[in-house]
Design goal:
The protein is of the alpha+beta class and about 300 residues long. The chain is about 40% helix and about 15% strand.
């Protein structure tokens, strides 16, 4: 089964191949019956991404005020949404990392840049025994390394926020009976999931929050399905339960269960990653809701 997340106003779509198709079809049919198949991206997502992009762009602009003579080139700059391209981020990260081990030939640089103020300053920071320090050492001596490292910090902040699991809620909150067994619950990384947002704690949540003797009777392992889904634009991964968790469950004669129901995978995600990141960012900025549209053919 195929389905799409279809955004209102923009007409943008993100396509998925269904996982646990019976559950997905039941979930969407129940949403439609309750006029609840309309989801909002988590508040603050687009603001965080916009802030991350601006921070990274500002850091690069600051560095480009003084980096040229050290590297013989500026750091690449991009349009705001181009920073959502993982190839751009990977390139920036590689260049930041590898540049610090490059050699800075002091005498050659003084000649090349005609005894510029910066080349003379660097010359004054090193004695004749260190004619070719690394760029990282030069930046450290100039007290510029922390500013240069903001490239790395900005990349990782943006990657974390744009790749983290994004919880989306139905604009018309609902809950309804879940007729499916607990064995479908996993901790896998899946591109689209029916998310846990229930009253109570799932069994796995009880384990990680030290209700180790199950003293508190608020357990809820998707006893209902509710109007919550998650989107995750990361490579999918099967995440087995830990031996410790399984052993704990066996001790309590319980079946190990996870925190979500896998619902959909994105085919060839790496090929379309930038496009889908931009779709989520733009539509959340515009407060466009989405619906789950099934293709049952």
């Amino acid at each position: 089964m195929k389905f799409v997340l279809a955004f209102e106003n923009s007409g943008d779509t993100i396509p998925f191949t269904g996982v646990n198709n019976d559950i997905v079809e039941y979930f969407v049919d129940q949403l439609n019956a309750r006029n609840a198949n309309r989801f909002a991206v988590t508040d603050g997502f687009s603001d965080r991404i916009a802030s991350n992009i601006q921070h990274l762009a500002d850091s690069i602009a600051d560095i480009n005020c003084w980096i040229f003579e050290i590297l013989d080139h500026d750091i690449g700059t991009y349009l705001p949404e181009e920073y959502l391209d993982q190839t751009v981020l990977n390139r920036l990260h590689r260049d930041w990392a590898k540049s610090q081990n490059k050699v800075y030939p002091i005498a050659y640089k003084r000649k090349k840049y005609k005894n510029s103020k910066q080349s003379e300053l660097i010359h004054s920071l090193f004695n004749d025994d260190t004619p070719m320090p690394t760029v990282g050492t030069v930046l450290s001596q100039m007290n510029l390394l922390a500013r240069y490292n903001q490239i790395n910090e900005g990349i990782h902040e943006l990657e974390q926020n744009v790749s983290s699991e994004l919880i989306c809620f139905s604009t018309n909150w609902v809950e309804f009976k879940n007729p499916y067994p607990e064995t479908v619950l996993t901790n896998d990384v899946c591109n689209f999931k029916i998310a846990f947002h229930h009253l109570g704690r799932a069994l796995y949540e009880k384990y990680i929050n030290f209700d180790l003797e199950l003293d508190f009777d608020d357990e809820n392992n998707f006893d209902e399905l509710v109007g919550a889904v998650s989107i995750c634009l990361r490579p999918e991964q099967t995440v087995p339960f830990s031996q410790e968790y399984v052993s704990w469950c066996q001790h309590h004669q319980r079946t190990p269960t996870g925190m979500g129901i896998n619902a959909g995978s994105i085919d060839n995600l790496s090929t379309h990653l930038t496009q889908y990141r931009q779709i989520l960012f733009r539509n959340s900025r515009q407060n466009n809701k989405f619906s789950i549209q099934l293709n049952k053919g």
